[in-house]
Amino acid sequence: MLNKAFIDEMEQKLLTLKEEIIEQFMSENEDFKEMVEDMSIKDLADVAADDIGKRQLEALNQHEVKTLRLVESAISRIHNEKYGKCLSCGAKIPQERLRAIPYALLCISCKSGEEKQKRHTSQEE
Ligand SMILES: [Zn+2]
Questions:
Q1: Ligand 1 centroid – CA 25 distance (Å)
Q2: How much is the average pLDDT of 47-69?
Q3: What percent of the chain has pLDDT over 70?
């Protein structure tokens, strides 16, 4: 089990990362900025879920959108107490890997296996 202090630290990192990505989106895209101006950062989690939000997100940098989804997913895994477990095989993801990539969802061996399979698609990092 990961200790709580470590998980708190990762959650803080994830939340900061999320704010940075959203701020980046707002500086790149006027429409997105208008759409989210009245919301708090906290509510933005729901933006990707609704239709208008989806269309707005399509106009944005896809790499960042993908990262934002991974960040969201990692945060919800913290809340479900599944954070730090490989999504594919259930093995514990090493803390050093999580420190480097707080939104990593796969352990290193599953990750490299996935890269072999989908060499031509873009990866999470
Ligand atoms: Zn794995």
A1: 32
A2: 74
A3: 77
Distance between Cα 91 and ligand 1 center (Å): 5
**Distance of CA 62 from the midpoint of ligand 1 (Å):** 25
39 has pLDDT over 60:
yes
Domain count, the chain: 1
- Quickly tell me which residue has 């060499």 as its tokens: 119
Residue 8 lies in a domain: yes
For 90: left if phi > 0, alpha if psi spans -120 to 50, otherwise beta; the answer is left
Q: What CATH number did the domain enclosing 81 receive?
A: 1.20.120.910
- Supply the range of the domain harboring residue 111: 4-117
- Maximum distance among all Cα pairs of the chain, rounded to whole angstroms: 43
- Does any domain span residue 30? yes
